[in-house]
Amino acid sequence: MGDVVRAPWNGYFVTGFDTCSQVLRGRNWLAPDLAWQERQDDSKQWDAIATREMTTTLARLNAPEHTCQRRSLGNLFDRSTIERLAPDVERDADRLLDELAEKLRWGEADFVSTVSEQLPVSTVGSWLGIPPEDYPHILEITHNQVFAQELLPTKSQLAVSAEATLALRAYFTELVARRRAEPRHDVLTGWIHTWDAMEPDREKADEILYRLTMFVTIASLETTATLLTSMAHLLTEPTRWAWLRQYPEHIDAAVDEVLRYDPPIHINTRIAAEDTVLAGVPIKKDSMIHVLYGAANHDPRRNADPGGFDILRGGSHLTFGGGVHYCLGAALAKLEARTLLARMLDRFPTLRTATPPQYAPRMVFRRITSLGVAL
């Protein structure tokens, strides 16, 4: 239907790889922030508690607020940080695979609840100093909150998201307060010191710290868990699994092909900053532009035979976005994926999918709720 396709509302779907890349990286395409929402005729659509809460997080900010908050985080997962985190990820992966091995002794096991949801929450939880006993609570409210980030959330989904949003605010506000009262040598304490130096208003600083901590946590969980589950599903095809065991040097390429083939996020939205033309289509200022990651990754002009799963493709994808909003946790997600895959290949020579993945009813943040595996 073309690189830019009219949506049934004030928006457009963008499908082509190069056009999606142009939107993600261009300075004249903005995140749909509060200022944009308040300019809309149907602004009540954006008044839901969960929607407004997420609109004030890093992913929905524009310069200069985005620039300030982003710089305060530094280079979250640079090479040295990834090297420091690697032993912890390896330890957690081994622990979770021990649990999987025990369950597989008795037949089929659910990969999602046993491994793919647990590794990301253990990693980011340890990094931020979240008590392990709180991990189940964090997972539950994260699953429920992201309904508000759907393209067309229903009233019932927004109600679930509202309750989860209040729970997230209560939890992470208290986490920041506890860390301020009892500083540690950790990343959250470092953020507190940074914002105390930047913002003299302590209440405002703590509000920003809450939003940053909450956003980094939930952004790390849903997407990485889905990546790990998709990886297990797509790669445990017997021929593929046997080949990767023989050629483990291609593990990174396998992870990238999973990211291209079935990205954890399928839709991201930008706003036209001014009247413009995109791929020959006139776009009015403030129009919504919905970047379709899956379509872009399957553009045959960028990746030949896009419907085929080819570990040695050497292609490219937009799964981590681009420009100023490029995914902060991309390096961490890849660390978790390649670490887990390497250990799975070594420990489970005959691992296979026993039951197909089951998906939550979502369009934007894909979530696989279960995946049966067996030996």
TrEMBL record:
<keyword id="KW-0560">Oxidoreductase</keyword>
<keyword id="KW-0503">Monooxygenase</keyword>
<dbReference type="InterPro" id="IPR017972">
    <property type="entry name" value="Cyt_P450_CS"/>
</dbReference>
<comment type="similarity">
    <text>Belongs to the cytochrome P450 family.</text>
</comment>
<dbReference type="Pfam" id="PF00067">
    <property type="entry name" value="p450"/>
</dbReference>
<dbReference type="InterPro" id="IPR002397">
    <property type="entry name" value="Cyt_P450_B"/>
</dbReference>
<protein>
    <submittedName>
        <fullName>Cytochrome P450</fullName>
    </submittedName>
</protein>
<keyword id="KW-0349">Heme</keyword>
<dbReference type="InterPro" id="IPR036396">
    <property type="entry name" value="Cyt_P450_sf"/>
</dbReference>
<dbReference type="InterPro" id="IPR001128">
    <property type="entry name" value="Cyt_P450"/>
</dbReference>
<keyword id="KW-0479">Metal-binding</keyword>
<keyword id="KW-0408">Iron</keyword>
